[in-house]
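INPUT
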Amino acid sequence: MMTTIAEMPAGFADKVIAAQSTFRTVMDAMARPGSVQLIRAVSGVPAPMMRGAAAIALTLFDQDTPVWLDEKLATSGDVIKWIKFHTSAPVIADAAGSSFAVIADPTSLPEFDRFALGSPEYPDRSTTIVIQVASLSEGPAYRLSGPGIDGVTVLRAAIGVPDLADRLAENACRFPRGIDLLLVSGESIVALPRTTQFVAQEG
Amino acid sequence: MNAPTYNFAYLDEQTKRMIRRAILKAIAIPGYQVPFASREMPMPYGWGTGGVQVTAAILGPDDRLKVIDQGSDDTTNAISIRKFFQKTAGVAVTTSTVNATVIQTRHRIHEAQLGAHQVLVYQVPIPEPLRFLEPRETETRRMHALAEYGLIHVKLYEDIARFGHIATAYAYPVKVNARYVMDPSPTPKFDNPKMDNCEALQLFGAGREKRIYAIPPYTTVQSLDFEDYPFEPYKHKACCALCNAADSYLDEIVTDDKGSRMFVCSDTDYCETRQAQGHRGSENASPFAESRHA
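OUTPUT
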């Protein structure tokens, strides 16, 4: 008798080149906040993760980066197994100790102070939050400015995080402490580092 | 072939992930020095191990790499690093500034303006601008945390008190995005204005000191100064003896033991490009002098 075992989705086919290409995409996104960048590397994706979030996980997570997952991801056993198998990253229950957090349900994003914010001496020791959102091309318009942006740029996105502009304004007040966001929709990503001023466009 | 092979761009993947995470945080906090677990590289500290590790972490097979040492593509340091990545990553290399996608530099910013598709990687010996004023890392960390930068202004003031002007000529401290004071690496202060509001991403790697920091594109980089003693970039009051450029940073070359000297562009690509365009200085050979006999 053959037993059917659900196979775990694969990682990158070519780990080295795919990780490099994904990193450059994330680096470009972080250096140019608000710009929509496309992840080209292909990998298996465990539901309900998105392709972009899976590629970021395979590129940046490892045994040194505790990862926190929101309820939607944590209750899907596949995602935890997949992350542990492919990246060796510990999946932890306390967001305050995490290097990365992955959010599949933006409406239930915990307050930023639940995550690691870094210390005044070491503000880099803070959580990077990967949020899966509905769209990075359509939706309400936001005006972004700050380092990496030539003047002002407009981002249209359906993000779904309640009070995001207020939360990011509060995050900016903590500078140099603070969290950094990576928004993912399919294979598109947009970075919102802590230096970016983010306001909803009037009208 | 049984020759030993390296991973792409020499570093193992876990090291690259660690450096990549440090680079992302460095971009998110402009001018702040992110500690990283610097590796031993197959070259001595002081030869650009920090810059090499940053380059190795970002480099891809489609990149075109340029390496300069004091503006020159032809010095030992530049050639050996270029060959290192040709051998371990198989990437295309170039000496042309405009054609390069990743440029690693030791102590100069080239004359051609950087574009948005380029990344400039600096080799940094001492990343801490406050180090010679306060030797304790715990204290300099706190000074950065509190933006307590009075000491560095005192240092510049002492220059004025002693010499009548700010005598700091290289590694001239800058303030990034109106927050962190940063060492631009030992570039001449002539190059400082090029860092301000630059279109390209600038990354800094210090291997021995184990620090990575960054300036994102379109970020203000202000050279520290005083209202009554404003920042002034310095260069020799001369033109390049080879290409006659009046706007480039010049190296002084002693030509005999009787005090004769000439000034030439420090940026070899800039100088050669200008000569190819027909610009002639006072000292370069006539363009036909080396032509073959008929």
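end of record. The domain at 11-200 of chain A is CATH 3.40.50.11310 (Rossmann fold).
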